[in-house]
């Protein structure tokens, strides 16, 4: 049972998501916040496996919440639930470590699967969100500074990168490629270093932009 902290300013949405997740039998909402101001304390008290975070909220929005989590050195994976009206906020959230993006009209099965993937250390990108993110990246290269000279990735690293883009955790990649989880973790770190990025989310988006994976 994965524990989730739900952060959204609309009570109807919070109630709806919590009720649906309860029906799954796999996810439990252990806490709710109406904006980002109480998220750090809630994380410390409740120790959720994943944070479901809205971007557009009064008082303290999603981007500000991610910054607060980073400043407090809280590394709980964050799944953004968005209507995707604000490209700039989504791009900023990537820079601040968000590990997944879904639209609010997502199916229950997909939401539960995304939560499980993030809890296991993976990332989750809805295909339609990825396409629109790439459009934003292309129109604003400054948001994703690319290395002047990109070090080539090996075929094995490209294979791992493709699995990362599919939302596989390190454990799942290790099982798929018959490697140890430690080896995969080291290879993922090497991929990030070669791409000149600091997290899996930015690595996948940059690789998609450069055409390294599809």
Account of the protein in words:
The protein has a six-stranded parallel β-sheet, with helices on both faces. Helix 8 crosses helix 9 and helix 9 packs across helix 10. The two termini are 33 Å apart. The chain has 214 residues and is an alpha/beta fold. It folds into two domains: 138 residues, Rossmann fold (3-Layer(aba) Sandwich), CATH 3.40.50; 66 residues, Arc Repressor Mutant, subunit A (Orthogonal Bundle), CATH 1.10.10. It has ten helices and six strands; from the N terminus they run E-H-E-H-E-H-E-H-E-H-E-H-H-H-H-H. Helix content is 52%, strand content 14%.
Provide the CATH topology of the largest domain: Rossmann fold
Strand order of the largest sheet: 2-1-3-4-5-6
Question: Which strand-content bin applies to the residues?
Answer: 5-15%
CATH superfamily of the largest domain: Response regulator
Spans of at least 5 consecutive residues whose pLDDT stays below 50 are: none
User: Structural class, judged by helices and strands?
Assistant: alpha/beta
- Tally of helical runs: 10
Helix amount: 40-55%
Order of helices and strands, N to C? EHEHEHEHEHEHHHHH
Return the CATH class of the largest domain.
Alpha Beta
Number of domains: 2
In angstroms, what is the radius of gyration?
17 Å
Q: State the end-to-end CA separation.
A: 33 Å
- What composes the largest sheet? 6 strands, parallel
């Amino acid at each position: 049972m994965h524990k989730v902290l739900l952060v959204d300013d609309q009570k109807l949405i919070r109630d709806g998501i919590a009720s649906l997740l309860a029906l799954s039998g796999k996810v439990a909402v252990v806490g709710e916040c109406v904006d980002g101001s109480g998220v750090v304390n809630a994380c410390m008290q409740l120790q959720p496996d994943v944070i479901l975070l809205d971007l557009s909220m009064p008082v303290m929005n999603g981007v500000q919440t991610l910054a607060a989590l980073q400043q407090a050195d809280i590394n709980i994976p964050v799944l953004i639930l968005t209507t995707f009206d604000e490209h700039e906020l989504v791009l900023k959230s990537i820079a601040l470590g968000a590990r997944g993006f879904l639209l609010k009209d997502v199916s229950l099965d997909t939401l539960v699967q995304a939560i499980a993937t993030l809890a296991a250390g993976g990332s989750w990108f809805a295909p339609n969100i990825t396409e629109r993110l790439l459009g934003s990246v292309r129109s604003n290269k400054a948001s994703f500074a690319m290395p002047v000279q990109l070090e080539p990735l090996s075929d094995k690293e490209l294979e791992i990168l493709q699995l990362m883009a599919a939302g596989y955790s390190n454990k799942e990649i290790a099982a798929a490629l018959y490697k140890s989880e430690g080896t995969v973790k080291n290879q993922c770190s090497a991929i990030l270093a070669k791409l000149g990025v600091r997290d899996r989310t930015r690595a996948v988006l940059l690789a998609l932009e450069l055409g390294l994976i599809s």
